[in-house]
Amino acid sequence: MITRGEGRDLQIYLAERAPGLRFFGGYWAMPGGTISKDDLHPGNGDAPTGEAAALQVCAHRELFEEVGVLRHRLPAGRIAPEALRAQRRRLLQHERRGDDEEAPSPWPDIIAGAEAPLELRTLCRIETPAFAPVRYDTVFFHVPIESCLAGTAGAQPDIWEGELTQGRFWRPEQALASWRAGDLLLVPPVIIMLEQLSDAEDFERFEQEIAATTEGYRGGDLHKVQFSPGVVLAPLHTATIPPSTTTNCYIVGHDELWVVDPGAPDALEQQRLLDLLDTLTSDGQRLAGVLLTHHHPDHIGGVQALCEARGLTASGHAQTLARLAPEVPRGDTLTNGARIGLGRSPDGNLGWELEALHTPGHARGHLCFRESRYGAILVGDMLSTISTIVIDPPEGHLATYIESLQRLERYEMKTLYPGHGPALRDGNRLVQKYLRHRLQREAALLKALGEQPSDVDALLPRVYWDADQRLYPFASRSLQAGLEKLGEEGRATEHHGVWRLTS
């Protein structure tokens, strides 16, 4: 966290990540990076420095590499602007070659003979919640720009286009206002920190509060994860299909909050959700009710407990509500096109709402919820960002599922929120990927049947050759759905469990 100024004049430096990057491309974030082997072994043959020292080495190296900020006091003959730019180019070239190259990092040579700076002050440490397959354990350091050398090329942030495209200082409330207006993409940890910073009396108070918040995360509190305004992602541990271990519960709204898919049956997980809801309603917000995408246990496992604890009712498609326990208080029956009012949007606009979209195929009563202000869509189990979706007959129907995907493709999805996995920008690309995947799987099935009539067990390793064998029980259900689709279309027939192509 690079800052300048203090008090109400404090500003935070944020940099835009290149749109093509796989990890948060197009989002604004704080400069940073990951520990390399050269950070652990900063000299030739040196013993490992340990994590704390390696983090300091990494942070100083990344500051210079990403934004040209140098806190080391170099000898007088090496501080000319062009000399510093040349050294930064060396560092970037080494980084682009990759950390596994035999050539050692030029960083020790760059700072050789320099007066070492004071250690960076740690603000907090945040680990990515369990919804993501790749998780980052990130230490945030505070870098007051006033602590850097004045009057040299290493004194102010300077973006060289590559992984980062631009950077600037923002007042915390200014960045948040741009984010709430839909004009700025911010990574979730930065949103947490900017919200607390804008509410704090001063920076010292912010340091205390962010340390307490992140300590709570390490103790098990749910993160306030936001990929777009008005949607909080809360991954709850459930007995779901691998590789997932959690199901995403969502809290949607600003003044009026709707809870979508409280799926955890475990009392401790339910309490984590209640604690988060208490935080989100601490300024007078009201819980309006529960919305359900479909009836599968990992999406409704906590609905009764939540409704009873907060006096709520559950709304969903008729075929979903019919599967709930009789004790669950019912709300509205939602049909395709139903509108759920959200009141005032985070940037103050009225008429904000969710639209229910009936998308059967995975489950007969499956609904997606499309948010009207920021182009977000909650897709339940229509898509996942960490795996494919199981179509399990007779409840699951592949042709219907494909038709539902094609309907979804017609909507612009600026942010896609799945039932499992992290949110994703430009959800339309994922829908197109899913449709291509289904076509490719069908082509493999047709090829296998063309070679030899077979039953499901014989077809499985030939059609799902790329699947983990531990997941074969689930893959076999999707394979059965594929065979039934071919049968419905008259392209294959079944006799005593053996399937063959029609002539």
Task: Supply the key terms.
Metallo-beta-lactamase, Chain A; globular; 7-stranded mixed β-sheet; Nucleoside Triphosphate Pyrophosphohydrolase; Arc Repressor Mutant, subunit A; 6-stranded mixed β-sheet; alpha+beta; 503 residues
Structure explained in plain terms:
- The protein is of the alpha+beta class.
- The chain has 3 domains: 2-171, Nucleoside Triphosphate Pyrophosphohydrolase (Alpha-Beta Complex); 224-425, Ribonuclease Z/Hydroxyacylglutathione hydrolase-like (Metallo-beta-lactamase, Chain A, 4-Layer Sandwich), CATH 3.60.15.10; 440-501, Arc Repressor Mutant, subunit A, CATH 1.10.10.
- It is built from 15 helices and 21 strands.
- The chain has helices at residues 37-40, 51-67, 81-97, 107-110, 172-180, 188-199, 203-218, 267-280, 297-300, 303-310, 318-321, 398-409, 427-451, 456-463, 472-488; strands spanning 2-4, 11-17, 28-29, 121-127, 137-144, 164-170, 225-228, 231-237, 246-253, 256-260, 286-291, 314-316, 330-333, 339-343, 352-358, 367-371, 376-380, 415-418, 424-425, 492-495, 498-501.
- A 7-stranded mixed β-sheet has the order 7-8-9-10-11-12-13.
- A hairpin with an 8-residue loop joins strand 15 and strand 16 (367-371).
- Helix 6 (188-199) packs across helix 7 and helix 14 crosses helix 15 (472-488).
- The model has no long low-confidence stretch (mean pLDDT 92).
